[in-house]
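Homework help board

Subject: predicted structure for assignment chain

Our instructor gave us this sequence and asked us to write out the predicted structure in token form, then describe one feature. I got the tokens but I'm not sure how to describe them. Can anyone check?
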Amino acid sequence: MERIQSALAKARAARERKLQGANPGTPMKSAETGPWQGLAELKLNPGHLERSRIVAINPGPSAASFDVMRTNLLRTLRTNGWTRVAITSPTPGCGKSTVTANLAFSLARLADTRVLVIELDLRHPSLMEMLGAGAEQHFAQMLAEGRIDYSHIRRVGPNLAFAMSTRASENPAELLSAARTADIIDEIETQLRPDIVLFDLSPVLVSDDAISFLDQVDCALMVAAAEETTVAEIEKCGKDLAKRTQVLGVVLNKCRYMEQEESLTYPV
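My token output:
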């Protein structure tokens, strides 16, 4: 285990040196100018977001669970100097993409926190439909072509942007493990300068897609579904994640029978 942790630390340090070397002496973000402000803006329909269970776009009781998760996550990221968070699940249907979107909106409500969500569940992309985005985006296709096209990244307000895909991709594991994909995402992070990057990855136990990319992140959150995900699935997923990155914890989703005070928190 110590050798694995050492290898992870060396890989993370190499990526950080690469990002810093690409733009030496430049602050992580610019308030007024740069590619971030040039991203096309995505207009959202509040009614559609509510139907999609996106509840953290505004503060209030519905957003409280995600705000607690946000606070715990930020403390961990800042303590360790991390920026990249993978969000995954053991199996499909746990609600990982919904959790990703809500956590992103909660983080983006902080005035000094710029958030980039990159959808890398390439077999079953869902964020476009969840957000009610009208125009097509093909971020995965852009990765496959080996080029950067910022028209496939849309901004929501001043602090949040989504890199999404309208349709599924072929051979996602090969695409996610390619060095060129890592280089493109590094360059995007260097240019857009987000404080936090959330990666919506595919479920761990159904394919090797997520595992193919985990060496590119600093840490991971696992989303499990109450009354659906088994203890064995959580343990197996946790072990697979821990071999490749730091596991922050398990988010228990779809809890129908929690007491009110319990429903306001998520374990992180």
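Reply (TA_rk): Your tokens look well-formed. For the description, you could write something like this. The chain has a mean pLDDT of 86. That's the kind of observation they're looking for.
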